Amino acid sequence: KSANPQWREQFDFHYFSDRKDMLDIEVRRKDNKKHEELLGTCHVDITALPTKQTNCLELPLEKHPGSLLMLIAVAPCTGVSISDLCVCPLGDSSERQQIAQRYCVKNSFRDIKDVGFLQVKVLKAVDLMAADFSGKSDPFCVLELGNDMLQTHTVYKNLNPEWNKVFTFPIKDIHDVLEVTVFDEDGDKPPDFLGKVAIPLLSV
């Protein structure tokens, strides 16, 4: 019930500098749980923003009244990676020793925000639901930790996909929950949900 909403939410996106990406933003209004109405869109060219500083942007909504006020910072990202199983980060014994030293008890108060790392090896899925008329699915896997999100590639026409990918996240809050969701890629349509598991970090 507001024409001037304040969200004050922060989201982290992993942007790779060799890509020419646009940040696409949609503002929507909910009438009820099922019906949504588009109130406007705007776009930000990430490559045009100065790096290592917070940019305050007032973005007019295209073809609709109103504007969106945002703070966007493009900064080097540490700790996040996607790799193949054969070149697994943190797999080297000397690197593991450095990590253990960095997070030992006597160093635990040097940087309060540097809680640690979470490494997840996504190997495969078994007996997924068939989402296509062919009796197969085109599954990919999405991992979310806090506001960080990474995903695997899609394995086409397969109910037992093997991804064999390693994901490394920096942990910002030890009370976060790792959410792993499997979707079926459906061309230009939104992906179909195939299943989900949630793992509290404190249970690891």
UniProtKB/TrEMBL annotation:
Alphabetical keyword list: Calcium, Membrane, Metal-binding, Repeat, Transmembrane, Transmembrane helix
GO terms of molecular function: calcium ion binding
UniProt subcellular location: Membrane
SUPFAM superfamilies: C2 domain (Calcium/lipid-binding domain, CaLB) (SSF49562)
A single Gene Ontology CC term: synaptic vesicle membrane
Keyword Transmembrane carried by entry: yes
GO biological process assignments: regulation of neurotransmitter secretion
Topology within the bilayer: Multi-pass membrane protein
Subcellular location, principal: membrane
Annotated C2 domain residues: 1-59, 93-204
Family, as annotated: Belongs to the MCTP family.
This protein's name: MCTP2 protein
